[in-house]
Amino acid sequence: GKLPDVYGVLSVVDNWPESSFETLIKVSLGVAAGDPRWTLEKLEGIHAVEDEEEKRKAFAAVSAITTDMARLDSGGNQLRSSLEELGITDDRKLDFAQKAFEAAKPAVRIALDKTLGLALPRLVDISWRLDYIVRGSDEAKACLPIYYVKLFLAKPLTPNTTIDPSSKTNMLDTIDLALSLEQMEDFLHTIRDANHQATRIGRLNTAK
Fold first, then answer.
1. N or C: which end of the chain has fewer CB within 10 A?
2. In this structure, what is the dihedral angle of CA atoms 24, 29, 32, 36, given to the nearest 10 degrees?
């Protein structure tokens, strides 16, 4: 579809001096990551670009695309391709943006989790077993299926995370559930529906 107007300025940014472009990338990623070393005031240091409105628009465009790609856990090569499509053609600038994004992405994702209230334990594994409970009198016994489900949760990522976040050595907790057949069907339906919605939203954002 048609690209939002916010990205139109990037074709102009392609003509900026290399040092000015690097500062723009650093400020955009630094602000997104909550790094106090990089604030909006740093944009004023881009003396080679006199148009303050142009600098603000460039910051908004780069911030929008890098933040969205960090949220979707996209790779640096995907950012590079998107910037190229949006008008950045200088290979040195693209190389810098790709490497800077890859280095800053973990911190940006942590900041997004905090901002969006998503810094929650993550589901990393699940196990289940089927059992039966006998109910009723001797004359009318009934075997009712019961599913015992265990959810394994890992700690959310933090700046101090130094191990594989999916590793069970980073386990935070487990949740045990006992579900009837009907409850198990509802549980699976809810998970499938959530996965479908997440996939659909991801595709829509990727297609922008």
1. N
2. -80
Four-CA torsion 80, 84, 90, 92, nearest 10 degrees: 0
- Angle, CA 73 vertex, CA 71 and CA 76 arms, to 5°: 115
- What separation in angstroms does the CA of 203 have from each of 25, 45, 101, 114, 208? 25, 37, 21, 24, 9
Contact 135, 147 (CB under 8 A): no
C-alpha 76/C-alpha 179 separation (Å) is: 43
Residues 6-60 have pLDDT tens digits of: 567 788 899 999 999 999 999 999 999 988 888 888 888 888 888 888 888 889 8
pTM given for the model: 0.55
